[in-house]
Structure formats: C-alpha cells, structure tokens
Known about the structure:
Layout: E1 3-9, E2 15-18, H1 24-32, E3 38-45, E4 51-60, H2 61-73, E5 78-83, E6 95-103, H3 120-132, H4 134-147, E7 152-154
Antiparallel strand pairs: 1-2, 1-3, 4-6, 4-7, 5-6
Helix pairs in contact: 3-4
Amino acid sequence: MMSWLLKLVNAGGKVVSCNRSQNSELFNLAIGYGLFGVITEVDLQLSPRKLLLRKVWLKKVDEVVPHLENLIKQGFLYGDWQFEIDDEHPEFLLRGIISAYKPIEDSALFKLEKQKSLSPDDWEQLIYLAHFDKKKAWDKYTSFYLSTDGQKIDESFLCR
C-alpha cells in the first residue's frame, strides 16, 4: 500500500502537512480536487508493481458475498460489482457482473498484453444508452466486461 505525506501552502500562507491520518480531511480534498493549497512537497512510500489476473462472472445478488469471501481466501485483492440496470428486466438489481483481481506470482510472466478497454466513444454511447435503452447498455457493457476475463493488468491500473 502506498502512503503519502503532502506539504502544502494554504490560502493563509501557512505550510500544512497532511496524510491519511494527519489532517485527513485536507489530504482528501487536496488529492481529490487539488484546489485547497499549493502542494510544495510530496513524500511517497511505494510498493513493488504487481501483475494481476482479472476474472469476471455474472452473479445473482445473493451469491455475491459468498463468492467474494471465497475469492479473498484464494488471494484475490480487489473486486467490483455492477448491478443489472434495466428496470424492466426481471433481475433488475438482483444480478450483476463481478470482477476480481489476483496477483500473478511468477514475475517472469510480467509481460502485459494489449489491454482491452472502452474508447471515449464507447463510454459516450454507454452513457447515452443507460438513459434511453438500459437493456442495450447492460448487454453492451456486460459483453465487453466478460470479454476481459483472464486479462493481465498492472495493479496501478486499478489505483487511478
């Protein structure tokens, strides 16, 4: 895990130190918005890069927690879940797509393949569809996400 210490000059001209535990509210505002002072110094404690394997599943809501608990036992570090958004679908908010990320131990495998990703035009279309054709939005997003199952990614990709 990366830890930070920021020093910034606030609007009153005072140099203030902050991190996740010291002046944490200012820290969160400074790294989130950057408008709460001039950052003059940053100390970072970095961790080694990790290559992760992404796995993706469609799951019903009652399966999610047991599935995540099992994945944690298997060494998966991160995960996310998106619900069915089509309010006319019988499984609206009752199913979704889940992804999880597990470190690949063999550093010799640290060769990243070209990442599948949605283009800005794809995202624009998905946002449009999410408002006007939720079924099509869900189908398009789910199809894309499932196609990324087994993809190797750099851990820093998740921390953006």
